[in-house]
Amino acid sequence: MRPFTSTTTTRAATALIAALALSFTAACGSDDSDDGGDKGAKPAKPAVELPKLDGKKLQVAAVWTGPEEKNFRKVLEEFEKRTGAEVEFVPTGDNTATFLGTKIEGGAPPDVAFLPQVGVLHQFAEKKWLKPLGDSAKKELTKNFSQGWQDLGAHEDTQYGVYAKAANKSLMWYNTSAFETAGAAEPKTWKDFLAQAQLISDSGVEPVSVGGADGWTLTDWFENVYLSQAGPKKYDQLAKHEIKWTDPSVEKALTTLGELFGKDQLLAGGNEGALQTPFPESVTKTFSSTDAPKAAVVFEGDFVGSSITNDTKAKIGTDAKVFPFPKVGAKSPVVTGGDAAVALKDGEGAQALLTFLASTDAAEIWAEQGGFVSPNKEMDSASYPDDVQREIAKALVGAGDDFRFDMSDQAPAAFGGTKGEGEWKALQDFLKNPKDVKGAQRALEAAAAKAFKN
């Protein structure tokens, strides 16, 4: 393992903030019609050129299951149709780095894999496990992605990854019925968020659904509080372990987070219930009913939309709405994440799939399924199924290179991306005992020092 030291360190998130102050009670007012002329079918777009791979078998691995896997399979089906290849999808489980490392060392890696942590991409590149992008894939990448997203998929000036899937991880999704019944409003500050949560609790509904059984959700809670409160400079320093987790800024952020986690009545199921709730269940708890919701609000990225659409009867824009993560400091935070497609095998098949994943064709097919946001700046935004996702995607693309990437995903996997270890485990212990801020800091620093080796 190694520290994340890429010169492509993520940048300030300010450009996204205003665009993400979304209101979904009305349509965006956009119209796809032309100023006269033929209003029939759109002219066919030139498809990305792909080689014929008749009968060639490929394997692609990613962390996704459930609706996310189902949606991605639509992309693979189109690739198979165009090339004649046969593609098998393999879920990696939460420990993506461990799963892939075992496969690689055993001599049987998948052709293509999606890496959900920047740190893992750099680690794998240093071990010579990744194959550089070929000319066709690089051509699509350069044409369709801003420099910032290109840089995130590179290591030591060599391009390896295509960030085909991104996420805005600074969103609060809420049950409109629960808010209306309680007389609650969309909060803009952390203080007001806690006040609205208490108001909802007083109305008889448990306010905040936390998927604490999946430690990665807790890292996102911390990162949003920390970025808003400590600022981008400190965020970058902590991401690279240039400052310790025993730093006063971390203590302040954990204390702030403890204002929510330390009030049992504000969490759906209390602290113990939150620790036993997987992320998908945290969403269904919030939106399984409009008459008697089990929770009022759930925090996470735009991918929550996929779970709402596929696992509940709630309608986005009416039953389910969203507001930006409340600002703790001077500005609202915006933390982004993403999955980088990389080749683990040489060959025409792997490069063809990466080329397709870097294209607008693949991005538009994926976007049509919902619960997905692409950094692909050239894709047709009309492909998104609703105005909510369209506006979130517009904000992401409109930010250019001006964003901050998920902190835990920049870390070595042993610290930021392993179930039951490192940051995931330390923050789960903190959720169990939010009063022990110092203990959480010591545990976080010990795990970080071991993983970063500094």
From TrEMBL:
Instruction: Specify the species.
Output: Streptomyces gossypii
Presence of keyword tRNA processing: no
From the Swiss-Prot or TrEMBL record, give the protein name. ABC transporter substrate-binding protein
Q: What family is reported?
A: Belongs to the bacterial solute-binding protein 1 family.
Q: Which UniProt keywords apply?
A: Signal, Transport
Q: Name one Pfam family in it.
A: SBP_bac_1
The record ties this protein, via InterPro entries, to: Bact_solute-bd_prot1, SBP
The residues the entry assigns to the signal sequence are 1-26
Q: Which PROSITE patterns match?
A: PROKAR_LIPOPROTEIN
Lineage runs: Bacteria, Bacillati, Actinomycetota, Actinomycetes, Kitasatosporales
